[in-house]
Amino acid sequence: MSTQRPRRIGVLTSGGDAPGMNACLRAIVRTAVYHNLEVIGFQRGYCGVLLGEYLTLDARSVANIIHRGGTILGSARCPEMHHVEGLERAASTLKGLGIEALLVIGGNGSMQGALSLAEHWSGQIIGLPGTIDNDLGGTDWTIGFFTALDTALDAADRLRDTAEAFDRIFLLEVMGRHAGWIALFTGIGGGAEEILIPEHAYDPDTIVKRIKESRSRGKRSHIIVVAEGACEGGVSRVAADIEGHGFETRTCVLGHVQRGGSPVALDRYLATELGVFAVQAALDGKSHVLAGKQGKTNRLVPLNEALDGNNQPPMHLLEINRFLAT
Amino acid sequence: MSTQRPRRIGVLTSGGDAPGMNACLRAIVRTAVYHNLEVIGFQRGYCGVLLGEYLTLDARSVANIIHRGGTILGSARCPEMHHVEGLERAASTLKGLGIEALLVIGGNGSMQGALSLAEHWSGQIIGLPGTIDNDLGGTDWTIGFFTALDTALDAADRLRDTAEAFDRIFLLEVMGRHAGWIALFTGIGGGAEEILIPEHAYDPDTIVKRIKESRSRGKRSHIIVVAEGACEGGVSRVAADIEGHGFETRTCVLGHVQRGGSPVALDRYLATELGVFAVQAALDGKSHVLAGKQGKTNRLVPLNEALDGNNQPPMHLLEINRFLAT
Amino acid sequence: MSTQRPRRIGVLTSGGDAPGMNACLRAIVRTAVYHNLEVIGFQRGYCGVLLGEYLTLDARSVANIIHRGGTILGSARCPEMHHVEGLERAASTLKGLGIEALLVIGGNGSMQGALSLAEHWSGQIIGLPGTIDNDLGGTDWTIGFFTALDTALDAADRLRDTAEAFDRIFLLEVMGRHAGWIALFTGIGGGAEEILIPEHAYDPDTIVKRIKESRSRGKRSHIIVVAEGACEGGVSRVAADIEGHGFETRTCVLGHVQRGGSPVALDRYLATELGVFAVQAALDGKSHVLAGKQGKTNRLVPLNEALDGNNQPPMHLLEINRFLAT
Amino acid sequence: MSTQRPRRIGVLTSGGDAPGMNACLRAIVRTAVYHNLEVIGFQRGYCGVLLGEYLTLDARSVANIIHRGGTILGSARCPEMHHVEGLERAASTLKGLGIEALLVIGGNGSMQGALSLAEHWSGQIIGLPGTIDNDLGGTDWTIGFFTALDTALDAADRLRDTAEAFDRIFLLEVMGRHAGWIALFTGIGGGAEEILIPEHAYDPDTIVKRIKESRSRGKRSHIIVVAEGACEGGVSRVAADIEGHGFETRTCVLGHVQRGGSPVALDRYLATELGVFAVQAALDGKSHVLAGKQGKTNRLVPLNEALDGNNQPPMHLLEINRFLAT
Question: Where is substrate bound in this sequence (chains A, B, C, D) (predicted)?
Answer without folding.
Answer: 131-133, 168, 175-177, 228, 250, 256-259
